Amino acid sequence: MHRYAGDISLVLGGSAGQGIQTVEALLVAVLKREGYHVFACKEYMSRIRGGSNSTEIRITNKKRQAYVKHIDFLVALDKDVVPHLEKRISKNTLIFGELSKIGAPAGHNSFDIPFTKFTNDLGNPIFASTIAVGVVLGLLQAPLADFEDFLRERFARKGEEVVAKNIQAAALGYNHGTHLAYDAGIEIHLTRHKGIKDELLMEGSDALGMGVIASGCNYISSYPMSPGTVLLTYLAKYHKEFGIVVDQAEDEIAAINQGLGAWYAGARAVVTTSGGGFALMTEGVSLAGIIETPIVIHIGQRPGPATGLPTKTEQADLNLALYAGHGEFPRAIFAPGNLEEIFRHAQAAFAIADEFQIPTFILTDQYLLDAISTVTKEDLEVQKIKNFIVETKSDYKRYAYNKDGISPRGIPGFGEGLVGVDSDEHDEEAHITESHEVRQKMQDKRLKKAEEIKKRAYPPTKIGKFTEADTVVISWGSNRGVVEEALDSIGSASLVGLHFSQVYPLAPNVEKLLKNKKLVVLENNAGGQFAQLLQLEYGVTVDEKILQYDGAPFAVEDVVERLNKIIA
User: What is 201-379's CATH number?
Assistant: First the structure.
């Protein structure tokens, strides 16, 4: 008997081109429609065909947004899957696949799915994905009706014959999965929640794209580089509906300079890249600093240096964003941890950039961008867009001195004034100067903006009751979900969490939460970059670091084990 209650980890494995992502998309959509909490994440090699890739789908009673190492059900589509995932496979893992092709792994519970026979019976191998989804639904003992309705909607435009064939394929898979569940003695206890049907199912990249569109973005100029490319393709997909100019620049240097030009002309622009591409943008960041022109930069982090692991995940570009560009000038950096935060902070990045005329950053990573979860419509709050552009008069001065450091920003053609900019040091009217006095006054003006930006910084999210705790686990960016689940699993009153979704400037008055506490920082890099920033900004001592930099996200089990050792 194999009994599963409240949490199932299902992994689909195969080579690129075998349709794993199609199965994932179908399965999570149907499970969500049936009222199950779902979370999915993936790992894949940097190749179009071949290799060994996998997708993890978690079906849980409580909403979870974290990767787990263990596998309950493994659906293997080729012979390389089991060797590739052997460190995650245990004696409790049930392996399903076409055994004549994947073999029957010794010492494991393996069950045959005759994909070739089924697709031959249906007359086309294209139905393998539908069959696979049907098998999984049968194993989970989930209703088939919702999947049939989903197939009718999905394939309606292709005609009744295609719909009928897919429903037949689903039934073949479902009946086989039901029999396998009986033969294996699988007993499933999962709670269905009525409200989940009305939630929105999306990837992190969807939340980012929607947040950027909600920000009023109408221009993107970027050179493709994974995983940052997802924002470029998303805005390209919807550019007509939302009036967005999409330009694939010849390189990253051109991309950021075109973005700055767009803001100068009155657009609201974003550029998207990864660490290697952003390295070429740093001069443009510094240009934004001195000409006081807004720019929003999305960096989809991946392991470096250089090309590194181009399709894996890491959080090693915090320092890159923090210190990029020569000279000193204000900036703001956001690092959202879930779908809601991605949507909210994309809007915040545009609002802060526009109001304070500075570069702002949105840091994500491959894991977060590819993760799939649900969000309620209410959590996707669209903020009102405030227009900071002024109509200029004949005596307009682009860099007029103000106590708060913010000069009125005009754009060419809107008013009588001349809107000058210059990358050299300049006076109020944008004329080049080498005056020491003007230089200091201008630099003080620009840096003055940092005070108000810091006052408005988003405070970190508290996880647990701080009054009873003596140890604080601090995370940032995509690690919010794994910390929340690990702390919930441990269930110790002595252990709480603090998650930062804005990592610069850090919110004021947080030091009091950290006073007389043991501080543990968890992040996906080798140097503890955020731990260093905490020590620099708050003057605190970080007692322990939990670091991972192998290209994989943190697993809940590993974090629980590390934290248990620390509090022991």
Answer: 3.40.50.970
